[in-house]
Design a protein that fits this description.
4 helices; 182 residues; alpha+beta; 25% helix; five-stranded mixed β-sheet; globular
């Protein structure tokens, strides 16, 4: 990939409508070129079949990575674009969605595992910390849950989500809560 070339992607902060309203996360397969083994939100790179529509990208990736058909997903908001600074040059658009209960099935070519973290845990436990990668210390928003660590770009997206959730002037929380009670 040429230096400076930006790639476009979309992810979903997907919240299951049944209590405890788990946020869906994936563990990326260890053989992947980008971010192997890391914990992430469902999502990925734009494909020509998406027709330039980032919502379609997000929904396609949800289906491919965790087996959630678009009929089960209601996108209720969008968070600010996040640009990855290291290595892969991604510009990521995060969507927020509610997801009807049902099975989560992984595509083992992309995903090693899928799991949920209760929404309240995400909101209450996300914290600023330091992650050591090789010999480098990186400041990041971190969420530790059952021996899994969320950090980096996903940590930044979660920080933006929690900030919007806690901001009385932001309509995101009301949209999510309406989607959870529908």
């Amino acid at each position: 990939m040429a230096e400076g070339v930006r790639r476009t992607a979309a992810v979903v902060v997907a919240i299951v409508t049944s209590p405890p309203h788990g946020v869906i996360f994936i563990e990326r397969a260890s053989h992947l070129r980008d971010h192997p083994g890391q914990i992430a939100l469902p999502g990925g790179s734009v494909d020509p079949s998406d027709g330039g529509d980032l919502r379609r990208t997000a929904l396609r990736e949800m289906r491919e990575e965790v087996g959630v058909a678009s009929e089960r997903v209601a996108i209720v908001g969008q968070l600010p674009l996040v640009s990855q600074r290291r290595a892969n040059n991604f510009d990521v658009t995060p969507f927020v969605a509610t997801v009807a209960p049902g099975p989560l099935t992984i595509d083992a070519t992309e995903t090693a595992a899928v799991f949920t973290v209760p929404l309240a845990f995400v909101i209450e436990r996300l914290a600023l910390g330091t992650v050591t990668v090789g010999e480098q210390s990186i400041e990041s928003h971190i969420l530790d849950f059952e021996a899994r660590r969320v950090w980096g770009l996903t940590g930044t997206i979660l920080r933006n989500f929690v900030s919007a959730w806690n901001d009385p002037a932001d309509a995101l929380r009301a949209a999510v809560e309406a989607g959870l009670s529908a």
